[in-house]
Design brief:
Elements: E1 3-8, H1 12-21, H2 24-27, E2 29-35, H3 38-47, E3 52-56, H4 64-74, E4 79-84, H5 89-97, E5 102-105, H6 110-151, H7 156-162, E6 171-179, H8 183-195, E7 200-205, E8 210-217, H9 226-235, E9 241-245, E10 249-250, H10 256-265, E11 276-279, H11 290-305, H12 309-326, H13 329-347, H14 357-367, H15 371-386, H16 393-409, H17 417-424, H18 428-439, H19 443-461, H20 466-472, H21 478-489, H22 493-499
Parallel strand pairs: 1-2, 1-3, 3-4, 4-5, 9-11
Antiparallel strand pairs: 6-8, 6-9, 6-10, 7-8
Helix pairs in contact: 11-12, 11-13, 12-15, 13-14, 13-15, 16-18, 19-20, 19-22
Length: 502
């Protein structure tokens, strides 16, 4: 990220010489202003965020030391390089007390100036990294504490003891977000917009494409401003994004049902073909579909046992047409889970399944957002049930390229199937079908397994912190990493690391 620089000296030609000595583009520096006296420096500081100040020690109105003292008190993140014609310990000592990072004698040479600038850049980067890590840790702690309230193991009153600033908020609401590209980044952007109002928003990642935001307000009326913020956000999205807002609830009530329902009802996206904001401020009763599921079990089994591809295709078309007509995410979840239960029960498809069938079905539902893509996915596994698909050598070659690309880029948290497909010059659906044919799992499942195995190895080594291991394994959110790791390994990363120390 470019750093902002101000150069201050009462002599015009000295300022211009300093500007000429600095390779601005190479060092990613931006000159935001020049000043010939101390007052002008303070004016520039008031109007611009300044990272680095190159400052003459003796200027009109306010001296360099006086400016440095002001900066040290009011904008301590600004790094200062003093240029002085005085080779005197008293001046250097005053500069150090004022927080000056480097003290150079005039006439300054390019090499020593660049060394001083590079030293300041390194210091700024270290401070920025520490700041970012502290923010991530604070977000992690918030999510851990809010998760405890949500699960009922802690009360909201207890939470407010640790975070007293939340005590004034009477109401909350969950917003679930599905984004096919950079979901955590988009959730962070939306959270930041909401936090700029009188709302408070905390966000976390729930799966590869789903994040959940929890919004706190003083009064129910404050939710009125949400519509405009969310609508504007949706309209400016280049890629598919679906936002679901559920029922407003009291912060002092039980949160569990609202949280679970919000995650469940994000599947409403399957009935929306374009980026959409769906708001339901009141809960509606969920219908039951026992008879429909029993009929599905009977008819799908019959279609599979005909051993005819066209019969299966036509039957699944009817099933998905029914899903489109009902537009009910509960029915959708039941149907997909039942289909894969039948596949696995009678034909052991998917092969080498390492999770329960319901978890497998849930993972597919959490990944897609189109009923057409979902239908193709269900059909793919159905065809495996009624015929033995031979793996041709070219498919193996393509899959080797896919795995090589994943292994080279898995530490990038934004890595997606569409990116892999684009780099290999194929469509995402074609790539996915070949990969499943050879590996009997999806590309995302392979990527997730690789990340977890990498994390396990790093945890065993014991050389890195949990946040660093999460980052090295391809997770930008340590809370989400902990959640995924615990689901895969049955314990938290910290517990796993401790159990492998001896």
């Amino acid at each position: 990220m470019p750093l902002n620089v101000v150069i201050a000296d009462d002599e015009y030609f000295i300022r211009k010489r300093i500007i000429k000595l600095i390779p601005w583009e190479k060092l990613q520096l931006t000159l935001v202003g020049e000043a010939e006296n101390g007052d002008e420096v303070l004016s520039l500081l008031a109007d611009n965020p300044v990272d680095l100040l190159i400052l003459d020690i003796k200027m009109p109105k306010l001296s360099g030391i006086e400016v440095a003292e002001y900066v040290h008190q009011h904008t301590p993140h600004t790094h200062i390089i003093i240029l002085s014609g005085y080779d005197d310990f008293h001046y250097a000592q005053s500069a150090i007390r004022a927080g000056v990072k480097e003290y150079l004698l005039k006439p300054v040479q390019q090499e020593e100036l660049l060394q001083a600038i590079q030293s300041c850049i390194s210091s700024i980067e270290i401070r920025s990294d520490i700041h970012n890590r502290l923010q991530l840790y604070e977000q992690y702690e918030w999510n851990q504490q809010l998760s405890a309230v949500r699960d009922g193991s802690r009360t909201y009153e207890d939470f407010c003891v640790s975070y007293p600033e939340f005590a004034k908020y009477k109401y909350s609401i969950y917003c679930t977000m599905y984004a096919e590209k950079s979901p955590l980044q988009k959730a962070s952007e939306l959270s930041e917009r909401l936090n700029q109002t009188n709302l408070v928003c905390v966000h976390s990642q729930e799966s590869e494409y789903i994040c959940i935001l929890q919004i706190f307000v003083l009064e129910k009326e404050d939710f009125k401003q949400i519509d405009n913020i969310f609508s504007d956000f949706i309209q400016n999205q280049e890629h598919y994004v679906y936002l679901y807002l559920d029922e407003v609830f009291s912060t002092h009530s039980s949160w569990t049902a609202y949280y679970q329902r919000s995650l469940h009802l994000i599947m409403e996206r399957y009935f929306s073909t374009a980026p959409t904001l769906y708001i339901r401020y009141s809960h509606r009763a969920i219908p039951k579909f026992e008879q429909e599921v029993l009929l599905l079990r009977k008819e799908l089994s019959a279609a599979l046992h005909t051993n005819e591809e066209e019969v299966l295709r036509q039957y699944l078309k009817q099933v998905f047409q029914s899903l489109r007509e009902k537009k009910n995410c509960t029915y959708l979840s039941l149907v997909i889970t039942e289909i894969f239960t039948i596949y696995h029960l009678y034909f052991h498809i998917p092969e080498q399944l390492t999770q329960s069938v319901s978890d497998f079905a849930a993972s597919i539902l959490a990944t897609e957002h189109s009923l057409d893509v979902l239908e193709a996915e269900v059909l793919f596994y159905g065809l495996e049930c009624i015929q033995k698909i031979e793996t041709v050598p070219s498919d193996v070659v393509v899959c080797r390229k896919i795995t090589e690309y994943i292994e080279a880029h898995f530490c990038d948290p934004t890595l997606s199937v569409s990116e892999i497909a684009e780099n290999l010059g194929m469509t995402a659906s074609y790539l996915g079908s070949i990969f499943k044919k050879v590996h009997h799992c999806s590309i995302l499942q392979y990527l997730s397994n690789l990340r977890i195995e990498t994390a396990k190895k790093l945890l065993k080594d014991g050389d890195l912190k949990i946040t660093e291991i999460a980052e090295a394994s391809g997770y930008s959110d340590v809370y989400y990493f902990s959640k995924k790791f615990k689901k895969a390994c049955g314990c938290s990363p910290k517990t796993y690391a401790n159990s492998n120390q001896f």
